[in-house]
Amino acid sequence: MNKNGPIGIFDSGIGGATVLKEIIKILPNETYIYYSDSKNNPYGDKTDQEIVALCENIVEFFIKENCKAIVIACNTASAKAVQYLRKRYYHIPFIAIEPAYKMVYDYAYNESTLVLATKGTIESEKFNLLYHTYDNHKTILLPCVGLADVIEEGNKEKIKQYVKHHLELYTGKVKNVVLGCTHYPLIIEEIKEVLGDVQFFNGAPYLANHLKEVLQEKDLINNEKQDTTIQFIDSSNSEQKKNRFFELIKEK
Ligand code: DGL
């Protein structure tokens, strides 16, 4: 593995920008190839086999590009494919996002908690193991079918309507909200408008630290570069996605 090689990062769309932003904060001197698989989104309601096949294609592409590590910036893909990918491509490190439910256990165990994620994540074996290990017995699991799509589309009105319609029921009833899909940190304001002053849990900063640790351990940190390079690829070649992605990366 080459220190100067890029880091591959992927999601079903541009939601993984929320993960890349956290990574860049602590690993600014690297080259990133971000793959947005918008041709095949949403991932949230696909079968395990479908997700594995999609991930394999992306991983093969990253390997051809000489990536030194691969970040799965999609909770659904992590939940359904990371075990398989780690076995099949054992020579390359995979760093995979997961809903920050353990953080609730560590920091806010006594508070009522709402976990928002795709149907695929919530039904997955990997998430269920995490959930049963750290269950605070005051948790509601809410599969948000279609929400990642609405966010991907970017229509503020539709986002507001979705959030109001699906979350209003929990207003005043929950204190913690786990953002279990990488698209959801993009709608924190809309969620707050409905749920009020809740505490958010996002796995992305934790993943970024973990990536840094893995690269350090394997002596793969790029010591020569002085800036961030990001190459964006979208499987449906959408210019609009590309522009929106870079806007998100620049936003504070
Ligand atoms: N952003 C993805 C996740 O974290 C998936 C969204 C989707 O395509 O359904 O789960």
Describe this structure in words.
Strand 3 (69-72), helix 3 (75-88) and strand 4 form a beta-alpha-beta unit. 43% of the residues are buried. The model has no long low-confidence stretch (mean pLDDT 96). This protein has helices spanning 17-26, 48-64, 75-88, 101-107, 119-123, 125-134, 147-153, 156-167, 188-195, 204-217, 239-250, and strands spanning 7-11, 31-36, 69-72, 94-96, 113-117, 139-143, 176-179, 199-201, 229-234. The strands form 2 sheets. Strands 4-3-1-2-9 form a 5-stranded parallel beta sheet, with helices on both faces. Strands 6-5-7-8 form a 4-stranded parallel beta sheet. It starts with 6 loop residues before the first strand and ends with a helix. Helix content is 46%, strand content 16%. With 252 residues, the chain is an alpha/beta fold. The protein is built from 11 helices and 9 strands. D-glutamic acid binds at residues 11-12, 15, 41-44, 74-76, 118, 121, 148, 181-183.
Question: Which key features would you list for this structure?
Answer:
alpha/beta; five-stranded parallel β-sheet; about 250 residues; 11 helices; binds D-glutamic acid; single chain; four-stranded parallel β-sheet
